[in-house]
Amino acid sequence: MSSSAIQLSSAAASSSFLSPSTFTTREPSASLRRRSPGICLCVASPPSEKTAYKTKVARNENMAKLQAGYLFPEIARRRSAHLLKYPDAQVLSLGIGDTTEPIPDVITSAMAKRAYALSMVEGYSGYGAEQGDKNLRAAIASTYYRDLGIEETDIFVSDGAKCDISRLQVLFGSNAKIAVQDPSYPAYVDSSVIMGQTGLYQKDIQKYGNIEYMRCTPDNGFFPDLSSISQTDVIFFCSPNNPTGSVASRDQLTRLVQFAKDNGSIIVYDSAYAMYISDDSPQSIFEIPGAKEVAIETSSFSKYAGFTGVRLGWTVVPKELLFSDGFPVAKDFNRIVCTCFNGASNIAQAGGLACLSPEGLKAMGDVVKFYKENAEIIVDTFTSLGFDVYGGRNAPYVWVHFPGRSSWDVFAEILEKAHMVTTPGSGFGPGGEGFVRVSAFGHRENVLEAAKRLKQLYK
Ligand SMILES: Cc1ncc(COP(=O)(O)O)c(C=O)c1O
Q1: Smallest Cα–Cα separation from 155: which of 360, 37, 312?
Q2: CB 289: neighbour CB atoms within 10 A?
Q3: Alpha carbon of 355 to ligand 1 centroid (Å)
Q4: Would 151 be classed as within a structural domain?
Q5: Domain Aminotransferase class I/classII large, which positions (predicted)?
Q6: Of 300, 335, 357, which marks where a domain is finished?
Q7: How many CB atoms lie within 10 A of CB 102?
Q8: CA 398, 280, 275 angle in degrees (round to 5)?
């Protein structure tokens, strides 16, 4: 199974609270029941010695560097093992950051209309522009980058931010060195490993060689001490942050842009949660003067409109951004997009245009508000229990501190005793040790039930 298939199945597994699915069924299938509890075959495990035939193709040595499976498949494995042990448990998932609420119908009706039009000669269209529909690019530029000097032609519409992160890594190539926030969204590190940019994984420090890990903790306000960070080609920076839920201030981002300029680095700014910001923190890196010369921004409709399954995002590559030889980065990215991608689905793009209509923006705002209310319930619950809690105010993630404890142990404790799935902080990098991430994506009744169970567990 490909890694994307693995992720898809794990996402599906945890996308619906209490509802049956391949992994989460309350009544496990006969085949699940037959396996002994705890023996959960990892989909990424090497094949058994009994495999009859082997090709002569050597395994990509960079793939072999990756640590045993991506974080979420591991969580899904533990969840299914838990269900084997407690077949009647109503497992609540506050783990993977997948959305749960339906897509507003002002958006689905536009997609339905576009889909239907495809069945008529006048409405049919095939391949579109690889960079995306002109009207959608213009709408993204005017909605999210008004007055920031970003133009329609700087926008590349895509099938999601995660896919763009990998395409950006192809753009930078295997000689690039990256920096990441520690903890951070795992796709930056894993795509770097796959590209061959890193050394081996060093178990003792839980880091890959040749990646600069920028520690982000409560002590530094979740913003790295830039004076201790060495120069890299690329700096991945995510705000509001997954997993810590922290948001970078204007002053911090100004320092980041200056740092990139001083070092000649390119920032890849991930703003997939920008609409969750309710204070005056920047929603785009391009709000910072000079950022167009040092930054790319990637973003997504996934967490605003419930498009995790529909798949639609975008990446902004300003024409002012140049490589060391003066060649425009956007021209090379355009070449990558035209080679590795054939444009986002025309149906999804019709949905994207509807998202950016006045009604669509209002509907997305309501979706975001709903998840933020969930986050507030989770923050209040942990705070009332005496925990130090971060995030949740400008982000759909709550970052809870369990000082001195292993985050996988806390994950196991909450699963065992409250039948609740969270995400162990160490899965996002060594800086996440001692924390768990609690996601605010969920139906309200399940978030309230989770609050009740947590109060019982930690009273
Ligand atoms: C920080 C961050 N970036 C990107 C993504 C992926 O977004 P998309 O669904 O657009 O691929 C996620 C998804 O969880 C995320 O948390």
Answers
A1: 312
A2: 9
A3: 18
A4: yes
A5: 90-454
A6: 357
A7: 10
A8: 55
Count of all residues that appear for the chain in the document: 459
Q: Which residues of the chain have pLDDT under 70?
A: 1-50, 68-70
Tally of structural domains, the chain: 2
Cα separation values, 381 from 99, 247, 277, 454, Å: 21, 21, 21, 8
Kindly write down the DSSP assignment for every residue of 414-426, as one continuous string. Answer: HHHHH-EE-EEGG
Q: 226-285: per-residue pLDDT in tens?
A: 999 999 999 999 999 999 999 999 999 999 999 999 999 999 999 999 999 999 999 999
> Is the residue at 121 inside a domain?
yes
- Examine residue 54 and state whether it is found in any structural domain, yes or no: no
Q: What is the DSSP string of 357-402?
A: SHHHHHHHHHHHHHHHHHHHHHHHHHHHTT--EEE-SSSSEEEEE-
Distance CA 409, CA 52 (A): 39
pLDDT digits (tens, 9 = 90+) for 346-368: 999 999 999 999 999 999 999 99
Please write the tens of the pLDDT for every residue from 130-172. Answer: 999 999 999 999 999 999 999 999 999 999 999 999 999 999 9
- Do residues 74 and 86 both lie within one domain? yes
Pocket test for ligand 1, best of 242, 275, 298, 310 (most atoms within 8 A of CB): 242
Ligand 1 within 6 A of 308 CB? yes
Residue 127 gets which letter from DSSP? Answer: S
